[in-house]
Specification:
The protein is mainly α and 359 residues long. 68% of the residues lie in helices and 2% in strands. The protein has a domain of 210 residues: ABC transporter involved in vitamin B12 uptake, BtuC (Orthogonal Bundle), CATH 1.10.3470.10. It contains 15 helices and four strands. The strands form two sheets. The chain has a two-stranded antiparallel ribbon. Strands 2-3 form a two-stranded antiparallel ribbon. A hairpin with a 2-residue loop joins strand 2 and strand 3. Helix 5 packs parallel to helix 7 and helix 10 packs across helix 12. The protein is globular. The relative contact order is 0.17.
Length: 359
């Protein structure tokens, strides 16, 4: 038996951090098990092929819709697609960080509702005489970040599963927004805030450039910081990460706060795009966000994926909706297609062979 190779380690100065996904099995180390080696090579090839599946789906969808309706490729339609993808991409970037840890954040709609409520109530509006200018969006982002911090604190300190913790804060956020708005809609009339949706640069609304900036920053944090590596380590195996010196509890709370920050930014863009706030302004945002992340290829079990895949997933969701509109297909069929798509994405991205029991 040849010498046992040491498993790879992250090269970012982390203390003896070994990702569980990088551990070699006995079949891969011991050269005598030919059948085991063959099976592992085939499995690895299948996994590598799966990385490109979402991109292939996106290209195929664009080709099919363009063949049926050439107007799909017009610049005006590209602008509509980019504008529709701006908010889901920002929300998806935050959700990706959470899902990479193997957790979930259901409070997206509550955070968006609180954020839009603060923007509409404190900026120039048709309900009161407030005129806080750009302080309104900043306060909205701060409030959403605090909600995310609350999510992390409840989940980590009280040891409540992330599903239940964020489900509770989702309805807390919706309740606060509904009470504050009195069940009515408040129009946003501040021209500077509205310019995020109405003013254009390079033919695209400013909201698109804001989303692109958020995506680039998130990609850099994920790939070039310890925080990003810690997210993968926790999702790959929390117990091993903790033994390797990763501050798991602190990273979990910080990740939820960052997700809340992105929710706040998305809320500001939602208020700018729709020009109002009401209790149902965030309806459907959660499903779109989770769908974009999962369809892009980020595993719900954690430790695999990233914001790059979330970008592809967001475009798939948006192009699907846009294409069905251009082809005159009922929006109810669109909802059915989204449901089928997320089931297929989870089925393809989950390594079910690793689980003897699925609950």
């Amino acid at each position: 038996m040849g010498p046992r190779r040491r498993p790879h380690r992250l090269r970012l100065g982390l203390p003896n951090l070994i990702l569980p996904a990088q551990h070699e099995t006995a079949a891969g180390v011991v050269g005598g098990n030919t059948a085991g080696n063959t099976w592992l090579r085939r499995f690895a090839a299948w996994r590598r092929l799966g990385l490109f599946a979402p991109l292939a789906v996106l290209v195929a969808m664009c080709a099919l819709v363009a063949a049926a309706n050439p107007a799909f490729l017009s610049f005006g339609n590209m602008v509509r697609i980019a504008n529709s993808a701006a908010i889901p991409l920002i929300l998806g970037c935050g959700a990706t960080f959470i899902i990479l840890m193997g957790s979930i954040d259901l409070s997206v709609e509550g955070g968006v509702a609180i954020g839009t409520m603060i923007v509409a109530s404190l900026a120039i509006n048709d309900s009161n005489s407030n005129d806080f200018g750009w302080f309104a969006p900043l306060l909205a982002i701060a409030a959403a970040t605090l909600l995310g911090l609350l999510n992390g604190a409840i989940h980590v300190l009280l040891r409540i599963p992330s599903f239940m913790a964020t489900l509770g804060t989702w309805f807390i956020g919706l309740g606060i927004a509904t009470v504050a708005l009195g069940g009515s809609s408040v129009r946003v009339m501040d021209p500077h805030i509205r310019s995020l949706a109405l003013q254009r640069f390079g033919g695209f609304p400013l909201a698109v450039w804001v989303a692109l900036l958020v995506f680039m920053v998130t990609l850099g944090v994920q790939n070039y910081t310890r925080f990003g590596c810690y997210l993968f380590a926790i999702g790959g195996g929390e117990d091993i990460a903790e033994l390797s010196g990763v501050p798991v509890r602190r990273i979990r709370v910080l990740a939820y706060a960052v997700a809340g920050l992105f929710t706040g930014i998305g809320a500001v863009l939602a208020a700018a795009q729709l020009g109002q706030s009401n209790a149902v302004i965030a309806d459907g945002r959660l499903f779109t966000t989770i769908t974009a992340v999962v369809v892009g290829g980020t595993a719900l079990t954690g430790g695999e994926g990233g914001v790059g895949r979330t970008l592809i997933g967001t475009l798939i969701v948006v192009v699907l909706a846009n294409g069905m509109v251009m082809l005159g297909i009922s929006p109810y069929v669109h909802q059915t297609a989204q449901g089928l798509m997320i089931i297929a994405a989870v089925a393809l991205s989950t390594r079910r062979i690793a689980f003897r029991i699925v609950k």
